[in-house]
Amino acid sequence: MAKRVPIHPLPLRIMHWLNAIAIVVLIGSGWEIYDASPFLPFTFPQWMTIGQWLGGAIAWHLAAIWLLMLNGLFYLGWGIASGHFRRKFLPLSPRAVLRDTAAALRFRLPHEVGVYNAVQRLLYLGVIALGILAVLSGLAVWKPVQLWWLSDLFGGFFISRVVHFCAMTGIVLFIAVHVLLVALVPRVLPAMITGGRLPEPDGREVRP
Amino acid sequence: MKSFGLDRRKLLGRALALGALGSLSGCDFDHPNHPDLADRFLRAMSDWNDEVQAALFDPRTLAPTFKPSQITRPPRFNAFYDISQAPQVDAATWRLALTGRIGDKRPWRIGQLRAMPRESQITRLICVEGWRVVGQWSGVPLHHFLRKVNADLRARYVSIHCADGYFSSIDMASALHPQTILALDFLGAPLTAPFGAPLRLRIPTKLGFKNPKSIVALGVTNTYPGGYWENQGYNWFSGS
Ligand code: HEM
User: Fold this and answer.
1) Among A12, A122, A161, B97, which residue has the least CB neighbours within 10 Å?
2) Which residues from chain B sit within 8 angstroms of residue A48, using beta carbons?
3) What is the Å distance from ligand 1's center to B90 Cα?
4) How far B127 CA sits from the closest chain A CA (Å)?
5) Residue B61 belongs to some domain of the structure
6) Is the same domain home to B104 and B179?
7) Residue ranges in chain B assigned as alpha helix (H)
8) SS3 of A11, please?
9) Domain total for chain B?
10) Do residues B121 and B87 both lie within one domain?
């Protein structure tokens, strides 16, 4: 019997879902924190925020950030060291992105098991970059005195807040597209939970 | 046990509904003797964040200073009550009481404080809510004052109590920071009631709520003193 090769290795699955938990808590509590001093002409309705009041929201936010940062560091370390990023996200060319986007919009983008198409690659690399931006701008908002160089890098306290908000917005847009894509191709979901199984070397495709 | 939510069960319910905290679902939140796991978790993380902030705190890093033209005018009043309810303290009869690990506990009159060397600063006050204002304060550096009254500078906390019942506390390292002052003047004139007359703490390395107004007592202690907002769930260190 051939060795089972999962589509998504266990560490990746654990990190993906831990990250999803951290992101949901951070976004929900972040909206509550924004509501205490909005800088755009709207606030987030109370029912979609986490933490009940500002103190609770900050407590959730500053608790979940440790999960996001530690998990994120493991993910980046693992992704680079194991060659996962190189194998799964590269190469990535603008031409491939355009081609796959056009195909996806016509619902003609076939899903190859275990391979991310160019749109996915761009989205994943993009959301990783946004996550890093969110952490850095968040640190600048948290410590404008001690981490003054980081605060200065973003252009001061207020612009750090705006950048942090923009990073959140980008991540929310990613989640919308990401979850939509999963909804359109639901058979990719079980593999992200159980690991799934790559096609056997003899060519027979084994459904996860 | 400090409480983080006005209705913690609802708060937790929402987190659970979002699938965020499946690991906490085994708890019986109706039982009064049963520890509230969400509170305990947030408390532990907040304590951990206190330690991280204490480690990040560099006594030589100064808060940014601003030009007179950048001062926020008119100044913004903020408290847990309306401006009309700001405590009216009679400076003539006011005394600053000293408690705890302090050698010379004789109370201070305002004139004695005004006779001390001053430090003036134009710094930014960042509120925990996310807004900020720039103001000009001047007063007695707290490290000067603590030395003058022979306080135990190796104690952990400086606690502060106010005329309106507000209270707060800070770590000794932040208390000894050169920009931490017992402010007497605001915008070039003695403090007015809404802005903390006759004496307030001005500490630009911490968030606004760590700058108590209308101080009536100052203590040095090794026992965690907490604070008005801190006891309700705001992070204690709340450094900037
Ligand atoms: C309910 C929410 C989510 C669902 C159902 C979900 C589902 C999935 C699935 C099925 C895949 C594998 C796609 C494939 O095999 O083609 C995947 C990958 C990925 N997801 Fe999610 N996801 C969710 C939330 C998130 C969030 C919140 C983020 C980050 C902000 C995220 C970031 C990623 C990334 C970066 C990958 C690629 C992982 C890699 O191979 O390194 N996901 N997700």
Assistant:
1) B97
2) none
3) 63
4) 9
5) no
6) yes
7) 8-17, 37-56, 110-114, 142-148, 172-175
8) helix
9) 2
10) yes
